[in-house]
Specification:
Structural class: mainly beta
Distance between the termini: 95 Å
Shape: elongated
Strand content: over 45%
Number of helices: 1
Radius of gyration: 43 Å
Helix content: under 10%
Number of strands: 57
Largest sheet: 7 strands, mixed
Length: 760
Amino acid sequence: MLTRHVAGGTALSVLLATASLLGVAAEPAAADSAATLPITSYSDMVVDGAHRRVFISTTDSKVVVADYNGKTVAQITSEPGAAGLVLSADSSTVYVALPKADAISAIDTATLRETARYPLGVAPRHLAMTRHTIWFGYAADGSADLGSLDLDPETEPTTPPTSPPTTPPTTPPTDTPTPTPTDPESTPTPTPTDTTAPSPSPSDTPSDAPTDTPTDTPTDTPSDPPVTTSPTPDATTPAPPAPFAADTPTRTTNGAVVTLGQGGPHTWNIAPMLASSPGNPDVVVAGTPVQSPMELQVYDVSSGHAEPQAYRWNANGAGNMQDIALSADGKQVLVASGAPYFQQAYRTSDLADDGRYTTDAYPNAVAVAPDGTIAAGIDGAYEPDVYIFRPRSDHRVRTYDFGVVGNPGTASALVAGGLAWAPDSSRLFAVTADVYGQHPTLRVLTDPTKSVTTVTVSAPSTAKRATKITVSGKLTATTAFPAGAKVTVTRTDLTSPRGTSLGVKPVAANGTFSFTDTPTTGGGVTYTATYAGDATHTAASGKRVVQVSRLATAASVKTNRATYAYGSTATVTGHLGKTGKSRVLSIWAQPAGGQKKLVRTAKVNAAGDLKVTYRLSRNTTFWASFAGDAVSAPKSVARSVGTQVSVSLAVSGNYRKGSVGSTSYYWFHKKKSALFTTHMTYANGRSQRLDLQVYYKGRWYSSGSEYFRLAITGTSRVGLAGPGESGIRARVRAVYVKGSSGDSLNTTTSTGWKYLYYTN
């Protein structure tokens, strides 16, 4: 799985890392694209500029190929334990270290097919390339060493060096400190008499890495201190030049020459990590990955064989090395290790300290662009993940913070060695994963060599129309802007919604600019300043909105009634007073509990009126709205009307109908029950109220009121038992009460009274 180090190593620290990235960002993410990778582990990455492809190796035994947007376009399988990658100078071939097959494979970058495989007899892990030779750090027989694969053995090598290095070495160590591996690899080393090396099956291949990884905490003193003739800690010790040994195992494999055991007098405990540079093709630098303390060795490979040069042990107390690179000119060795908390720089000639590139805790990646720009990465939770530097300058050009991934989101961080440049330096590719090693993602970062530009624009928040105002602004970035920088300014308002150019304004040496303008259009006026960018700065723009005054607008809205029966039609009239050029008015309606809807938008008539009709079923609010123009301010006025419910009440159970005086009654026998059936406009949770009154000595008295829930059909049936005596007169009605019947969608509505008369 993809793994990362989390400060503190606890679940709490993971949660804090997530919260930090959710709340704080050093700089807005600048990835043009980010695509999930079909891998569970990460080994190495190279970029093919000729075909605009990115090759990513994984111990899943495959090489994933992505385009320049990060999208996976191919997966090359059957690459056992795929580890280190190098690209040929002509971009025609990617070479892959196969530690589980004891071989190096060649993949055609045009067809994306394996075209050759070179058996080595040892397990290669890390690769570097100089001219036509692939150098590989390998593990075999419980130890590790440096080997080479000469792809063009007929090419005449340069003469091996016969004189000492320019800087005379101090007393060479006689017993270079060599940490003892805890789980030695058992891959057999081929004898010099081997002319070809069979490619063992994966089942016969030993483990390609020690089981017990050395601690990543650097110490000042190694577990096995050097003897008195060995270098002191943090000592720069050029190794004596040693001619290539005649008995070094060399053999031919698949048309190429394999040479093992080129580590010289230094003994490697772990397959060394390697770096080379086209700017200095005569040098290969090796370092111990993961181990603490760290060891570095420079080799002169101008003869076609590795001649040991400068050596350094425990430099700056560094340990847990994660990545190594050479500067574009090959004169500086760059190292990313768990500690110290900066990317270290050493002089290639003698490995003396040569500056630093300050990042933050847990450096884990370093990559150099062809133009010399340096990308330095860390395994960080609270800080930016990638830092960009100019060569030999500790000043940051820009940073990238990868934020969170997944759902729910977790902190996303750079994986070890997960940086690679496009050959034209226009893109930086980064592989990230979350704190659990999941969501492996290829991120494509554009314009990585450019400092991020920020444009701020300042102006009064309000201004009077036709009055001069001053607009100012400033360009800021991590690097200075070139002399003669300019911004392009536009003004956008109601009269010119697509913008009006105000020309180009010069930028002072401190990044500031200023100009005046007299807005003649009222309302929101937006001033936008745009910097087009340059060779070292990104493009950017900033804006400021000024509210310019307008004349007050007179408007009104009225209806032909205040309350309407259910289903009736209202006539709504909007009126607009004097304005500028616009004479357009909009009528809106919003039924109670519903959405506001546009009824009509049109020019008002000569009298300034706009009439509409609207069918009502609920209480409704009407608006007459004017959007405003260059002279007159927006205006909106409202009027609300009530709408009754549809309600009826039916009486049954009577034996006849008759009049008592001038009033019609339902006649019931004194012991007969009456049934009241109410039909009312339905709404969720709505109830009707039944009111009952009794007539006594010339007056009607309330006998009680009670609410009854409506069925979804809007019906309610209620029975009333007979009083048991004759001569009783009563009356009943059904009522919807706004707010008390379960909602406030309509205005209070009642039926007329129904009269009851009880006889024998």
